[in-house]
Amino acid sequence: MKGIIEIEGMEFFAYHGCYETERIVGNKFVVYARMEADCEAAAATDDIGRALNYASAYEVIAREMMVTSHLLEHVCKRIIDALLLAFPQIEHVTVKVSKMNPPLGGKIGATSVTLSK
What we know:
Elements: E1 2-14, H1 20-25, E2 27-38, H2 40-45, H3 54-65, H4 72-86, E3 90-100, E4 110-116
Antiparallel strand pairs: 1-2, 2-3, 3-4
Helix pairs in contact: 3-4
């Protein structure tokens, strides 16, 4: 039984950006992750040991968000690679990282990058 595990609205204060000021001052980021995996055993047994533990997935994402990068593409790729390494049962993963209120010279709610593997 294929399942979809989503973690939505994860908020982080981090230091990603091409401009030096962004890497000094920091900004708010919102992350979304969607992981596809076989959920048959977890659904049948009600055993967290047989599930893709989303608390552990959150920890992986939080750790990668604290590594400063210039590009959101790089942040997404690192998160995807870390999730696939930590959870071999993941068949497909999508990660979206949004930078809130980016410094682009106007009123902009967010810029985002979404990558899948």
